[in-house]
Amino acid sequence: xxxxxxxxxxxxxxxxxxxxxxxxxxxxxxxxxxxxxxxxxxxxxxxxxxxxxxxxxxxxxxxxxxxxxxxxxxxxxxxxxxxxxxxxxxxxxxxxxxxxxxxxxxxxxxxxxxxxxxxxxxxxxxxxxxxxxxxxxxxxxxxxxxxxxxxxxxxxxxxxxxxxxxxxxxxxxxxxxxxxxxxxxxxxxxxxxxxxxxxxxxxxxxxxxxxxxxxxxxxxxxxxxxxxxxxxxxxxxxxxxxxxxxxxxxxxxxxxxxxxxxxxxxxxxxxxxxxxxxxxxxxxxxxxxxxxxxxxxxxxxxxxxxxxxxxxxxxxxxxxxxxxxxxxxxxxxxxxxxxxxxxxxxxxxxxxxxxxxxxxxxxxxxxxxxxxxxxxxxxxxxxxxxxxxxxxxxxxxxxxxxxxxxxxxxxxxxxxxxxxxxxxxxxxxxxxxxxxxxxxxxxxxxxxxxxxxxxxxxxxxxxxxxxxxxxxxxxxxxxxxxxxxxxxxxxxxxxxxxxxxxxxxxxxxxxxxxxxxxxxxxxxxxxxxxxxxxxxxxxxxxxxxxxxxxxxxxxxxxxxxxxxxxxxxxxxxxxxxxxxxxxxxxxxxxxxxxxxxxxxxxxxxxxxxxxxxxxxxxxxxxxxxxxxxxxxxxxxxxxxxxxxxxxxxxxxxxxxxxxxxxxxxxx
Length: 667
Hints:
Oligomer: single chain
Largest sheet: 8 strands, mixed
Number of helices: 16
Radius of gyration: 28 Å
Shape: globular
C-alpha cells in the first residue's frame, strides 16, 4: 500500500510540474503530408541533402543515400520533454519542489502532510509546514526611515545561486545592479525597493537575477544613502577580499548599474529627467518649450567620471551619493541608458500612442486608417512566434501596452503595419529608428555601430523637422548617447532592465497578504533556496511524435526544441527558419534515427530586399520572400542557422531574424 501510494503521489507531482509544457491548446495547421501510400513496406534508412520531390512510393527508389554526421548527444527518448527538475530528488524533496513552485500555502501543505503521515512508513514527515519547507524563523532587519531594510549579503546570495543551479562560478565574477521601486498594492502605499544583482558572465541560460537586499515601507526611503549603506559596504568588502563560493575563491566586480531615469535622479542625487541640466551624459542645459524641458542641441560637452565626482556642474548635482565610495565605478559611463524605458516605453510609445493614434492634428491618423491597421495587426498576430509572451493587441489598447509589445512593434511588426498608412516622410523616419535599434540589439552587427550612431542623430534631427522642437524631450535627446553605451557593454539586451523587471514580478507574487511583506518575501525565498533545482538544459530535443510523411524515417516529430528557440512544424508562427546556405525555409517535420536528426523543409525560391532606404534591408537579414518551392528537401538540423519571424505582406512574406533568445523574452 505504501509503494502504491508513493507512486500515485509522484505521478500527480510530475503531472503538476509538466502540465504547462505538455498542454497543447491550439490545433495543428500542418499540411497533411501522409496522403501518400501508407502501405509501403520500404524504410528509408538514408537520404541526401539534394532536393527530393514528393513522389509516389513506387518511384522513391532513386533517392540518393548520403548522411551528414552530427554529434551523438541526441536524447534517446526524443519524444519526451527535457530533463525534469525532479529526476534526482527524493519523495519529500519532490513535494517541497511542488509546494514552492506552485506557491502552496502553509495551511494547504500541512493538510497534505497530515494525510501523508497516516500512511505506513511516512509518519516521520514533519507536521509543520515551516519545518517541512525549512522556512527561516527570524528575518533580521534594520530601520531605514520610514520603513525597514533587510540585507542578505552578496556572498551569501551568490553562493546560494551557484549551489542551487549546480554551477561552477567563473574565476572573475561580474554583476550589474538594478534598483527600482515596486508597488505592492493599489489600495495603499505599500512598496518595496529591491537591490537586484544580475550575474553577467554565465555560459548557460538560467534566471540570472539574485536579491541582494530589500526595503519595505509606505514611502520610498527618505535618504538614499542610508538605504544603500549596507550594499555599498558589502560591494567594497567583496571587491577587495574576493568571494568564497563553495570551495572556490573568485574575484568580484560590480560592472555597471541598471537604473531608469527616476532611479538615477534619486540614487545619484542629480536633477530629475524633467528638469534643466538633467541629461546624465552631456552638459546641455535645455530650453523650455510647450510645458516641457527640451534638449534640441546635438553636440554638447560630455560629462565624465571626474566632473561627476568633483560636482563641477552645480546645476546638475543635488548632493553627495554614497555610490561614490565604490572607487572603481565610473558614475557616468557605468550607468548606461536603459533602452527598455528610453526607446520602447519612451520614443516608440510617444510616436505610436502619443502622436499617430491618440495625438493631435496634423500628425494623428484618421479613425478609418486606425481601424484598418487593427485588422492588419489581427492578421499578423497569428504569425508571432511562441517565444514572444505577448502578442499584438489592438491599437486602441496601446496606452496599456507593455514594453515587450512595443519591442515587438519596433523590431518586427511596425515596418510592415505602418507602410500603407504613414506618409513617405514619416515612414522613412520610422525606418531610421527601426534600422538603428535593430543594429544595436543584434549580437552580429557590431561592425555597424558607427552607422547606427549617425542614423540615430539623423532620426533626432528629423524628429524636430517633422514633429517640432518640442519633441526633443529627455528620451529623444538621449538617443544620440545610446550607441556609446552599446560600444561599452555590447548589444542593448546585455544592459536592459527586462530580466530585472521580470524578477520584480516574481517577488510580488511571493506576497500573500498585506501584513509584513518584507518578512514574507524573505521566508518564501528561504524555502526556495533549500529546494534543489537544476539549470536549464543546454541540449536540444524532439517532441510531439506524429506520422508526417513517408519521406522521413520513423519516429517522426513536429517540434524541435533548441536552447535559444523552438521550431514547430505544426504552427505557422514557429515553422520558418534560415539555413546556412542563406535560404529561407519552412519546416514540415523532424526525424531522428541512428543518432542522426534531419528536418523536412521547403525553400522559398524568391528572396529580395524589403526596403532599400535608409539601407538595404538584407544588411539586417530582413527579406521579402515568396514562391515556396513545391519540392521537399531533407537537411541535417545542423544546417539550421536561425529562426525567422515571418509576417504576411502582399503576395509573400517579410522575414526578420529573431534577435532575442528565450531568456530575454519574458515579461
